[in-house]
Amino acid sequence: MEGAVRSHLSQDYPDFEVVVVDDRSADATPAILAALARESPRLTIVEGIEPPPGWLGKPHALAQGAAQATGQILLFADADVRYDARALGEAVTVLERERLDFLALLPGFEMRGFWENVLLPYVPMSFFLGLGFLANSDRHRWIAAGGGAGNMVRRAAYDAVGGHAGIRDSVIDDVRLAMTVKRAGFRCRMAQADDRVRVRMYRGFREIVDGFTKNVSFVFGGWFGLVFLLGTVLTFVAAVIPPAALLAAAFGWPVARTDVFLAAAAVVLTVLVRGLLALYLRTALWAAWTQPLMAFVWTGIIARSLYRRFVRREVRWRGRRYDAAGARF
After folding, report:
1. pLDDT digits over 125-156, tens only?
2. Which domain holds residue 48?
3. Average pLDDT over residues 84-102
4. Phi then psi for 53, rounded to 5 degrees?
């Protein structure tokens, strides 16, 4: 957290403020923030309060921060995201040059250890190998890109859609804000900022599973969600069956030669696509071979998330438990 706040305070931009909402921290965060506030008059600390009925925790925390901010351009970012000193100025330049109302910054994902490199590539893959390219089209108002690494929005557009009060029950509030702004007729874009913005989303297997269990089921709502779910299932099946067929043939099972050839071609194509994406995003190349394992584990994460939402009817995060019936995408 300290490194992230310092990176925001060090921005090479003439006029800005940093507002940090301390939302129920139980560690040394208050003391660290107090020390940083003594160093920089740009830093304002907001002591978060419990969300009222109908609100989820994160939208409420962000609403508190927005209420304290005084600027005409707002940038919402999670507390673990680090910014290069040039990031804010360059983002504002893009916003003004393109006459945008909303700009999402796609970060560089830091992945350490085996499971982070195996599982987290699913996030950028879903965007780059799916329908993400439509997010930068003014014509397609039903799809937009947003993220916790950085949502820059003009205050006028933010207020016009009701701010975070309009998405108070959203589990995936960062994407929901982008979609709300875009559907209201404002101009929205996503910009790749992996050389300026960096984030390590989760640390290790357990954090990844728990983090995505919270929200991934909400992605599959509505007609677009159903299409995305179907595409995800087909993609996962396609990732598992070809290597399974090759293993069966290797152990002497009766697999037709044509099927072996097709399975091998599918595996090579998958590794090639994953490898090219890894080169583009500057992530670990070796993880391109782990697509079947990624698909298998992500199937479990999605199933767990659907179980929590529709059977247990709950959403858990940061020590809070919410009724899933009162939450939405």
Report:
1. 888 877 777 888 888 888 889 999 999 999 99
2. 2-116+131-202
3. 97
4. -55, 140
Write the single-letter amino acid at 174.
Answer: D
- 155 shares its domain with 290: no
Q: Distance between CA atoms of 153 and 75, rounded to whole angstroms?
A: 6
- Other C-beta atoms lying within 10 Å of the C-beta of residue 31: 9
Q: What is the pLDDT of residue 224?
A: 67
Average pLDDT (228-232) is 76
Give the Å distances, CA to CA, from 169 to 9, 57, 58, 82, 328.
Answer: 30, 9, 9, 27, 6
Q: What is the CATH number of the domain that holds 175?
A: 3.90.550.10
Q: State whether 16 and 104 are in the same domain.
A: yes
Instruction: Read off the tokens for 164.
Output: 């975070």
Q: For residue 233, what are its two tokens?
A: 């299932």
Residue 11 per-residue DSSP state: -
Measured distance CA(62)–CA(107) in Å, rounded: 20
Q: Residue 98: is its pLDDT beyond 90? A: yes
C-alpha distance from residue 265 to each of 121, 179, 261 (Å): 22, 38, 6
Task: Record the pTM.
Answer: 0.88
Nearest to 59, CA basis, from 138, 167, 148:
167
**Statement: residue 324 has pLDDT above 70:** no
Give yes or no for a contact between 9 and 18, defined as CB atoms under 8 angstroms apart: yes
Query: What is the DSSP pairing of strand 188-192 with strand 197-199?
Result: unpaired
> How many C-beta atoms lie closer than 10 Å to residue 23's C-beta?
21
Residue the block writes with tokens 């507390």: 79
